[in-house]
Design brief:
Elements: E1 19-23, E2 26-27, E3 33-35, E4 41-44, E5 52-60, E6 64-74, H1 100-119, H2 145-161, E7 172-178, E8 186-190, E9 197-199, H3 208-220, H4 223-226, E10 229-236, E11 241-247, H5 253-260, E12 268-274, E13 277-284, E14 290-293, E15 301-303, E16 311-313, E17 319-324, E18 327-331, H6 341-355, E19 362-366, H7 372-377, E20 383-388, H8 391-403, E21 409-413, E22 431-435, H9 443-449, E23 454-461, H10 464-474, E24 480-486, E25 496-501
Parallel strand pairs: 4-6, 11-12, 19-20, 19-22, 20-21, 22-23
Antiparallel strand pairs: 1-5, 2-3, 3-4, 5-6, 7-8, 7-10, 8-9, 10-11, 12-13, 13-14, 15-16, 17-18, 23-25, 24-25
Helix pairs in contact: 1-10, 9-10
Amino acid sequence: MAQFFKPKSGKAKSKQVSKFSLTIDKQDHHGKGISFSTSPITIVDQAITGEQGDVIISKKSKKAQYGKWTSITKPSNYRIKPFCEFYGSCGGCNLQHVNATNGLLFKFEALNEYLLHNLKVEVLPWFAPILSNIHYEQAHSKNDAVFSDLMNESINSASSHNSYTQTAYRRRVKLAIDARNPNNLRIGFRQRNGANIVDINVCSIVSDSINEALLSVRNTLNASLAKQVGHIVLTEGATSTQIAFYLVRKPSQEILNLLLNCVKNHKQVCVIFLKSDLLGHSFINAKNEKVLDFQSQKKTNQVDAGSDNNVEINAIDLIQIEDMQGKETAIKPHHFLQINQHVNHQMLRRAKKWLDPNEDDILYDFFCGAGNFSISMAQNVKEVFGYEGVSEMLSQARYNAVLQSVNNCDFKTLDLSETDLKSQITMLNDSLVILDPSREGAHQLSEVLLQKQCKKILYISCNPNTFCRDATHLQSKYKLTKIACLDMFPFTEHLELMALFE
């Protein structure tokens, strides 16, 4: 269950809140508006370049103050009505006040400026962006006609052979719970700029099956049951949707029964955990009978992944996913998952095209996770070495390799943030490399790669700050030849990128 801050007793001092007018001069790569007319500069959430209005300050530092609109006296022509009733209060989205196309254009223009400045180059070799499977209007950018053309290339290509949804792209969500008030049970997402839970009955950016699972959860939980639950993870798989309850204390048999009964149709499965221990699972079988199993933790699958890679996996809590088009792998609800399946498919295709592997190549996949890149590329290369710091993810990668009859992947546990990586990584010259780090980047690893002779390095980044740091190191030896945006999270401030160094 969500933890909440409790203020100390005593009289709170009243703060004087000042309101003032400003004009938004530009946007940053998070999609926020910036006004340079104040000292320090003012950063305004959900603002568009050229807009004017009144703001109040919510936070202040030496370099910047952070404001929020109280009124917009001159709205931008790009501003539209958000499609979600919870927008503004829910912390999930912050770019629904523009359409998906303009949201991406605004983020790209700011990102491009940021990269040019920090990488100290005059131009970058941009390629067409990878878009989500949602509706995009044709792009018309006054500031960057080249990127507009590239974006329209992606839009036209997608619309010619794919169906799309209007706004839904997520296949996983993590739900928080507030059961403090039995008459006001809240199940949903964190409040924007706050600790409270926004009660959500439907989410516009998730798949239909996730919303159906959310309804099943809401119909099952009452205030008493909800107090047993820390959080809930809903994951859409290839053939079913998994509802995973993570409990805060050991439950009674009655509570287990009530939670497991949340499954409402053949396409839903339920699993219940206490920390990492699986307590039970449920599903509806072919005879339309609800099956409740309380001995799940004893059921394991052992697979032979090579002499040193035998792995025993508890298969009950796995959800089958199609992370590689036409190939099913498996994941657990607490494992990392690319939540945008369509972008992941396109990213894997683009990676294969840019790396252009052959049967004699050796591929080193760093931060390999459950084998997203390793397994998809294995059939195109001689051998794959996957490195990951989380041993449980490596066990899953080995399991997935066996599921796909892949026998040329060797997965190794290694903390890739260690300072002494050079002595722990042996690499053949003229090899292919993939880096897919978390937001912390690959600082130590990029230093190691400068001592190696790599044919190509593909870097996937979710943080432009650490990408610039690592790319600056890599560019002292390798040339940045290709770069593209990945619209993995439309209607949010996040924008991922992939870059090729040769």
